[in-house]
Amino acid sequence: MRFLHERTCSNQNFLLPIQILWKRVVFERLLYVIVGAFLALAIVKLNYEQAKPVTELIGPVATEKRPIKLFCWIATMPPNHETKAVHIKATWAPRCDRYMFMSSVNSTDLPAIAAVQKEGRQFLWQKTAFALNYVWTHFGEDFDFFYKADDDTYALIDNMRLLLANHDPSIPAIIGKVHQYVVKQGYADGGAGYVMSRAALRLFVHGMKNTSMCYNETHSEFEDMKVGKLIHVSPHSRTTLHH
């Protein structure tokens, strides 16, 4: 009995360090979880502060400007309606005063207009020409600026409004990331999108009636270069919009 008692005590003494070590491991893991949670919250808060649009950071400056009426149209295609276009509709598009998608089929859900009968890069200019004419015909007099984007574009509309508040919509201007090659006077990159003032859109649409100049390339995949060739604006009327 004495031997068994000593053996039992010896086993308990042996297990004691293991129990202490196990408790320490559990404590350390809980500590890691708690610290990690606080760090995650801090990072999320930091990212939110950094991602705030300029209008939130300097609101009083923005409120001094007159309200901007912005129309946004987004080029898309049927396969992207449920994979790309819906996410634009759920995020930045509602920050425009009105928006519309240009596709090859009509959709009341997006909403989308059938701008072309077939999809493909060779039909980009045809889609753009239709869109600009359609937007001007139906909404031209009701908005100050018109933003063109693709369905893989994410736009900070609040920041865009702040920038546009410094521009007069009655002055012809196209605003975007300007490339100075290929097109002599430069052109606004279509990937990031570009903004046309009301006056610029009006002149552009009326100019497209000159079919000898504007429709000599019905099928063109470089719609942004085509717009640059046709806009024929002076250098001071093109602005680089940093993004």
From TrEMBL:
Chain ranges passing through the membrane: 30-48
Cited Gene3D superfamilies: 3.90.550.50
Membrane topology per record: Single-pass type II membrane protein
Keywords, comma-separated and alphabetical: Glycosyltransferase, Membrane, Nucleotide-binding, Signal-anchor, Transferase, Transmembrane, Transmembrane helix
Family the entry assigns: Belongs to the glycosyltransferase 31 family. Beta3-Gal-T subfamily.
Keyword Transmembrane helix set for record: yes
Predominant cellular place of this UniProt entry's protein: membrane
Keyword Transcription included in the entry's annotation: no
Source organism (scientific name): Clonorchis sinensis
Principal EC category: transferase
Database matches in InterPro entries: C1GALT1/C1GALT1_chp1, Fringe-like_glycosylTrfase
Residues of the Fringe-like glycosyltransferase domain: 70-232
Protein name: N-acetylgalactosaminide beta-1,3-galactosyltransferase
GO terms for cellular component: membrane
Pathway stated in the Swiss-Prot or TrEMBL entry: Protein modification; protein glycosylation
Localization per record: Membrane
